Amino acid sequence: MHSTRKTAEMAGQPILTVKDLHVGFDTLDGRVEAVKGISLHVEAGETVAIVGESGSGKSQAMMATMRLLASNGRASGHVDYRGQNLLELDRAGMDSIRGRRITMIFQEPMTSLDPLYTIGNQLIEPIRRHRKLPHADARKEALRLLELVKIPEPERRMKSYPYEMSGGQRQRVMIAMALANDPDILIADEPTTALDVTVQAQILTLLAELQRTLGMAIVFITHDLGIVRRLADRVYVMRQGEVVEEGPADALFTAPQHEYTKMLLEAEPTGRKQPPPQSAPVLLEGRDVEVTFKIGGGFLQGQPLLVRAVNHISIALKKGQTIGVVGESGSGKSTLGRALLRLLPSDGVIRFDGRDIAPLDREAMRPMRRELQLVFQDPFGSLSPRMTIGQVITEGLLVHEPSLSYAQRDARAVEALREVDLDPGMRNRYAHEFSGGQRQRIAIARAIILKPKVVVLDEPTSALDRSVQKQIVDLLRDLQAAHDLSYLFISHDLAVVRAMADYIVVMKQGTIVEEGPTEAIFERPCETYTQELMAAALDQTRFRLIA
Amino acid sequence: MTDAIMAVPVEGRSFWGDAWARLKVNKAAMVSLYYLVFVTALCVVGSYFVPHLYTTVYPDYVRTPPSLTAYPKADMVETALGDAVKRMRVDLKSWQQEGDRVLVTVTASKKLDERNIRYLDRSDTFDDAQVESMAPDGLEMVMSAAIKQQYFLFGTDNIGRDLLSRTLMAGRISLAIGLLAGVVAVVIGVIYGATAGFIGGKTDEVMMRIVDVLYSLPFIFFVIMLVVFFGRNFVLMFLAVGAVLWLDMARIVRGQALSIRRQEYVQAAEALGVTRRGILQRHIVPNLLGVVVIYMTLLVPQVIILESFLSFLGLGVQEPMTSWGVLISAGAKNIGTANWMLMYPAFLLVSTLFALNFIGDGLRDALDPKDR
User: Fold this and answer.
1) Tell me, what DSSP letter sits at residue A359?
2) pLDDT-derived band of residue A6, with 50, 70 and 90 as boundaries?
3) Taking phi first (over 0 means left), then psi (-120 to 50 degrees means alpha), and beta for anything else, what does residue B47 get?
4) Distance between CA atoms of A498 and A202, rounded to whole angstroms?
5) Of A47, A63, A541, B131, which sits 20 to 30 A from A433 (CA to CA)?
C-alpha cells in the first residue's frame, strides 16, 4: 500500500551507487585504511549481501554511506542516492534521508533500544516527528507496524519495556522502527548474529516477507555465508577493505572465482569424531546435578525468586570423549559446565576420577583444578588486559607448580604457545594486541599448560569468524589426540558440534530433552525441539524466490 | 628446547604504555602536566633561591606593592631616613644621595654620640653606616650609609614579609597536604573498597553501611573535634582530610571491584585454582589502578581546597607557617589596599587546580578501556 512509488520504478535500476569509497581512521599509530576504494550499487527492491570476516570493512563502508562514522573516521569518494551525493549533503539534507529513505538495524537489539522508554513510546515518537502525525494516528501506525513484524499481542507490547522482551522480539521491534517511514533501503548489519538459530530463521523469514510486501531493497551485512545463500540476490565479498568478488548469489556459490571466496565457502568445519572405545573409563560424571539461582531476597526485600537453571541432569564423560552440549541461550548449558567444574554451587553428585568432588571446599578443590580446565566464549573478556600473555598462560603454574623458577615457567610458556601454533616470541605482548582467533589460542594454551584431563569448552568458537573457527576446531582436535583430553563442548552452533563431538546432549530450559551419538541425533532427531534446531541450522531452502 | 630459549620475546605495548601514548596527544593534559611539574619544582627548590626568608619581617616594607625594580624607591629613602633619625633623637639637617649611598647631616642640642649610626644599620633600608665627619663642637655629624637594594617581586604582606617566598612556601605545604592526604585516602579507600567488593555478600553490606554512617558525620564538626582534642597539628590535617575523603574512594573502588570480579578473566583465574589473595593481587588491584589514578588526580585538588577552607577558618596551618589557603584568606581581607596579596597566591592555587583537573580528564580519556 505504501509502495506505489517503488513499484512504478523500473526494477534493476540502481538507487544507491557507491563509487571509489575510501574510509580511514586517524589513530595514534597513524591513519588506518578500513575501506580502500570500493564500488557497489543497490537496485530497487533487491537483496544485496556484503560478506566478509571481521575487520574486512563491510560495516564501516555502510556506516560511511550513512555518515555515521566514529569521530576519527574520514570518508571520501561518491555515494550517490537518487542523484544526491550523500557524502557532501548538509545536515538537514542528511536527516531527510537517514532514518527515512535509508534505515538501519544493528546486531545488538538490546543496546539499540532505550531501556527507559516503552516500546510504544519509542515507535510513536519518530513517527510523529518525521511524518507530523497527531498522537492517536501515530499510535495506530505503531500498532500496524508491530502487527507487520508479527509481534504477538501488539496492544499489550506497546506498554512493555525492552528488558521484558526476548532478543528476537527486540529485533522485530527494531525492524518495525526501521520500517516506520517506509524506506527505500534497509541496511541490516548482522541482524541475527546475536540470536539463537531458530529465532534467526524466523527473523530472516520475516525480512524476506516484508521485502516482498513492501518492496524495499535490503543491504545485508554478514559473515555467515549460510544466510547469504538463502537470502541474497547479489553478493559482494569483501576482504581487507576491498571487494574481491561480486556477482549473483547462485553463480558465486556454485562457481566462486576468487581464492578468498573459495576459502570462505570451504571454511565449514569438516570431519567427524570417532567415539572412544566402550571400555574407556568414565572421567567426569554428574548425577542429578541441580543449580538454583536466587534472585533478590535478603533483608527487607521479601521472598527471593528461585530460578532453577539446571534441573536434575546426569551426564558421564569418558576418557577421550567429546560430549557436545547443544541448546539455545538460557537453556542452562553454560551453567551445567561450570557446575561440573564446581565453579558454581550445586546439588547432586559430581564424580571426577571416581572421587566425589561435590562436597569439597575451595582449598580441597584447588589441587583438582589442574585437571579440570575451562575455555571461555569471549576471547576478549577472558584475558586480563594488564598482563602479558606469558603471564596469563603461566598463572596456573604459579598455583600448581610453585617450585618452578621464572626461567622454567617461561620455557613452559614457549612450549604451550608452540603447541597452539602461536609465535612464542610474542609472549611479552599484551592481549589487546592480538586478533580474536589468536586470543582464543592463548586461552587454550592457558588451559593445556597444566596438562589437564578434562576441558570444558564454553562456546569457544562462536565469537570467531568461520575460517578461524575451522582452525580452532582443528587445533582442539589435535590437542585432544596428543594429550588424550576429554572435552565437554558447549555450543549453539550445530555445524561445529557435529565436527567436534561424538556424543550430543540437547538441553532446553535446564533439562536434557534428547541425547545420543552425534550421527544418530543429526540423522534421526526424535524430539520436536531437536528437529526444530536441526531444521533452523541445516536448512538450505531459500527464504525468498528471485523475482 | 634449545631453540625455544632462543625465541627472543618481542616487547609489547603495555596498558600503561598505551595510555601514555594517548595522553601525549592530549595537548591540554600535557601542558598541564608540564605546568604542574614546573610549579612543584618552583615550590620545592625555588624557595632556596629567593632573596628573603618567608619568616623575615621588614618593618620598612609593610604592604609594599610588587615591583620588578629594586626597593627602596626615592620617596621611601626619605621616610626611612626620617624614621631612623627620629630614633636617634636628633634633628635631620639635610641629606643627599650620591650613587648608592646617602650622606646625612644631623644636628642636636647635646653632644652627638658616634654610636648613633647603628640606628641606620638597623633600618631595612640602609647598610654599612659610617661617620664621615664630626663638627668640633660635637653638635653636628655627617654620616653615610649604603642603600640596601631589595627586590619584592610579589610585594610584601601586612607585616612586611616577602610574598614571593611565602607563596612558594605555602605551595610546598598545600601540595604536600594534597599529595599526602590524597595518598592516605587512596590507600585506605582502595584496601577497604577492594576488600568489600571482592568478598561481597554480607561482609560487603556491613562494610558499606559503616561507610554510610561515616558519611553522615559533618566534616567540619569532625575536624573541630580533632583540633579540640589534639590541638592544632600539621600532621592531624592530613589525617583529618584523608580520613574523610577515603569514603568516596572506597565506594568507587568497591563498585569497580564488583564488576571486575564478574569479568571472565577473574573466572578463568578461579578455574585455574588461583587463591583469593592471588586474584586480588594479580587481577583486581591492577585493573582498579586506572580508576584510582584518575580519581587521585581529582582528589588532590579537592584536598587542597579543603585545606584552604580549613586554614581560611583558622583551623589549618599556623603562623608563621603558611599555605595557599592562609595567604588567600589574608589577601581577601586586604583586597582594597593590597590586592597583590590575593592575586598571586590565588593565581597559583587556581592554575594548579586547573592543571590537576586537566590531567585527571586526560587520564580518564587515556585509560578508558571503552575507547580501546
Assistant:
1) T
2) very low
3) alpha
4) 23
5) A63
Query: Which residue in B has a C-alpha nearest to residue A443's C-alpha?
Result: B268
A416: burial class by Cβ within 10 Å (0-12, 13-18, 19+)? buried
Contact, A303 vs A289, CB < 8 A? no
How, if at all, do strands A217-222 and A47-51 pair? Answer: parallel
CA-to-CA distance for A86 and A79, rounded, in angstroms? Answer: 5
Q: Report how far residue B191's alpha carbon sits from residue A324's, in angstroms, rounded to the nearest whole number.
A: 43
Interface list for chain B against chain A, based on CB atoms closer than 8 Å:
1, 4-5, 7-15, 18, 21-22, 25, 205, 263-265, 267-275, 278, 282-283, 286-287, 369, 372
Write out pLDDT tens, residues A338-391.
899 888 888 889 999 888 888 888 888 888 888 999 998 887 788 888 888 888
3-state SS record for A43-62: ECCCEEEEECCCCCCHHHHH
Share of chain B above pLDDT 70, in %: 94
Instruction: Report DSSP state, residue A524.
Output: S
Most B CBs within 10 Å, among A71, A340, A368, A382, to test the B interface: A382
Interface predicted TM-score (ipTM): 0.76
Q: What is the mean pLDDT of residues A114-135?
A: 85
* Number of residues assigned to chain B: 372
Residue with cell 508491530: A146
CB A46 within 8 A of CB A217: yes
> CB count, 10 Å around CB of A331?
25
Q: Mapped to the 3 state alphabet, what secondary structure does B192-219 carry?
A: HHHHHHHHCHHHHHHHHHHHHHHHCCCH
**How many CB atoms are closer than 10 A to CB B86?**
12
The 3-state DSSP class for residue A366 equals helix
Nine cell digits for residue B44: 620545592
d(CA A17, CA A41): 4
What is the DSSP secondary structure assignment for residue B282, as one 8-state letter?
A: I
DSSP state string for B315-355: -S--TTS--HHHHHHHHHHTTTT-THHHHHHHHHHHHHHHH
Alpha-carbon distance A477 to A457, whole Å?
12
Cell of A433: 594486541
Going by the DSSP 8-state scheme, the letter that residue B85 receives in this structure is: H
Contact B274 A367 (CB under 8 A): no
Least confident of B3-17, B133-147, B329-343: B3-17
Side-by-side strand order, sheet with A30-43: A30-43, A14-27, A73-81, A84-85
Q: Which chain A residue has its CA at the smallest distance from B270's CA? A: A343
The answer to whether the beta carbons of residues A59 and A189 sit under 8 Å apart is: yes
